[in-house]
């Protein structure tokens, strides 16, 4: 199988495109951060945090970022890595799960808080902060200086 065909099949398998409910042993979790080496730190609806692994067939083809929701399946081996990624959720899957009352209620409220935190994600400390001036203050300063110049004449 060529690389292109393989990637196409892997993408179809990894992303949620079928309307299938999660099995009893699968759970919906949120990605907190990437730990490298195809490991991701996640949080469950209960607030428990642990590592999940990316299956070998998804590596180099699929990327998961902070804030994504994924479907995981527990694995027996390992103390730190407790689950493996099964599916990556998109907006349609989240909507479908909410309609069928499968979506965890704890993740509903977190969406509002995530938008507030986006502004504080990255602050570039390599550049000096530039002062921002209001255009109203600038125009009033110019008019004051003009009036001062007129009074001297």
Automatic annotation (TrEMBL):
Where is each S1-like domain found? 17-90
Q: What is this protein called?
A: Probable RNA-binding protein EIF1AD
List where Basic and acidic residues composition bias occurs.
106-115
Q: Which organism is it from?
A: Bicyclus anynana (Squinting bush brown butterfly)
Q: Could you confirm whether the keyword RNA-binding appears in this record?
A: yes
Q: Which family does it belong to?
A: Belongs to the EIF1AD family.
Cite the Pfam families for this sequence. eIF-1a
Composition bias (Acidic residues) maps to: 136-153
The terms under GO molecular function for this entry are: RNA binding; translation initiation factor activity
CDD domains to which the protein is assigned, alphabetical: S1_eIF1AD_like
Which keywords fit this entry according to its UniProt record? Answer: Initiation factor, Protein biosynthesis, RNA-binding
| Domain of life according to the entry | Eukaryota
Record keyword RNA-binding present: yes
Q: Which residues form a coiled coil?
A: none
Where do the segments described as Disordered lie? 105-153
Q: Name one GO cellular component term.
A: nucleus
């Amino acid at each position: 199988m060529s690389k292109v065909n393989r990637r196409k099949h892997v993408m179809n398998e990894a992303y949620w495109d079928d309307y299938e409910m999660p099995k009893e042993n699968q759970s919906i979790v949120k990605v907190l951060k990437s730990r490298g080496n195809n490991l991701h730190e996640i949080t469950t609806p209960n607030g428990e945090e642990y590592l999940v692994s990316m299956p070998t067939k998804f590596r180099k083809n699929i990327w998961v970022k902070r804030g994504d929701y994924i479907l995981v399946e527990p694995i027996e081996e390992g103390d730190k890595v407790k689950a493996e990624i099964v599916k990556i959720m998109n907006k349609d899957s989240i909507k479908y799960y909410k309609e069928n009352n499968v979506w965890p209620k704890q993740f509903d409220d977190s969406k509002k808080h995530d938008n507030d935190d986006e502004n504080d994600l990255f602050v570039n400390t390599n550049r000096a902060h530039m002062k921002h001036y209001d255009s109203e203050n600038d125009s009033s300063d110019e008019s004051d200086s003009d009036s001062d110049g007129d009074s001297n004449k």
